[in-house]
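Retro notes, item 3 of 5
We never archived the inputs for the calcium ion complex last cycle. Fixing that now. Sequence and ligand:
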Amino acid sequence: MSSRPCLYVVLAAGKGTRMKSSLPKVLHKIAGQSMLAHILATASQSGGKVAVVVAPDGEAVAKEAIRVVPDAQIFEQAAQRGTADAVLAARAALEAHDDHDVVVLFGDTPLVRREVIDELRRGLDGGAGIVVLGFHPKDPTGYGRLLLGGDGTLTAIREDRDAGDEVRKIGLCNSGVMAFRVPNLVDLLSGIGTANAKGEYYLTDAVAVARERGVRATAIVCEEDDVLGINTREQLAEAEAIWQSRTRSRFMQNGVTMIAPETVWLSFDTQIAADVSIEPNVIFGVGVTVGEGAQILGFCHVEHSTIGKGARLGPFARLRPGARIGENVHIGNFVEVKNTTLGEGAKANHLSYLGDGIVGARANIGAGTIFCNYDGFNKERTEVGEGAFVGSNTSLVAPVKIGEGAYIGSGSVITKNVSPGALALERSAQEERPGWAEKFRIMMTRRKAQRAK
Ligand code: UD1
Ligand code: CA
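Structure as it came back at the time:
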């Protein structure tokens, strides 16, 4: 592909009032990260410079851009005077990188895939000065239409509200994404006027201006899914669904089994190795890595956690931030793990809370074990040594350490450290009264009969 360097200009000045939100539109999330971050990550994936155009009150948007692309240049568009004016807000970057290809992307069109951008740039290699990304929407209403000449060149883009009935019949629409290879692009864009229904500087008019100057424009066509523009919460959910479906497919192609993929929710940074199997209704929040061959049974909720090779999780397990599940560990139903590391082969199979601790390799955590990590003021740590056996219904009151191979009797409330290999038992002695039950029944039967009289 093109050996020329590339400058990506990402327009993110839009208010997005139809989101009915105090959050700027491009900061709404898809798969756990902002739509702006999605498009910036795609843009910067294969190198290149990034310029982001924000509104005058766009600090939060600028901050997000810098978080994703630390050397992104931020430009402010003083007022919303149209897409061409927005690109010209990045004038300094355009001038400084006049020998670069320029690709214009929209912050609210986050699902454009890398392959599509590459294809757009390949269009520039064919000699066109402008390549526009077109698509065939189910409903073209509202979109700019691409006007093609007999030889397939793009002669102009006509905005919906400036179009007559004939042009409105055209199904090929402008996605908004455009690539330029024009010397002195600033000069070309400055030739765009505002003689249109909105009285705005339309970037789409660059095609007609270029034509007057003898610069050829072409179009390539992509799937509608790539260029879904988000203006409403419904469209946000639609974009989420598209992203999820694409990402599930990618994982399955890479060797992950999903029985009911449409019920598995992934985040932008989820990492799942080959031969992992995932049952229905599993949610991967942000920051999760799953090792080879792990099994995630139904209804698990996992975030900021790692799951080791061959581990088995769930059904109904919850991993909160900092859960580090070692190789071949079993975490069973209704077990919650937070900020706790479990060593290889450890087991916590039922109804437990493991918070702020370390569980050694092969240790067994019995049903109903609670790490009492919080006294209302501070969080304290619990350590369970390798091979230790914690009986059911045990409270381990942190800070506390259970030595290697130690046993804890069921029902104990452990407040002191336990030595390796010892048995710790904290419960009152059991007494037995022979024949008591029969006497009790006779007495109660008699009392009840007396009351009934
Ligand atoms: C634009 C295209 C249209 C295309 C459609 C695809 C133009 C003139 N029209 O129309 O051909 O079919 O997108 O969705 O380009 N923006 C700014 N500053 C501005 C104006 C817009 O940053 O002054 C940003 C918006 O935040 C948005 C993007 O540019 O992300 C597109 O602007 P918008 O007004 O939504 O253009 P459309 O009318 O949808
Ligand atoms: Ca739009």
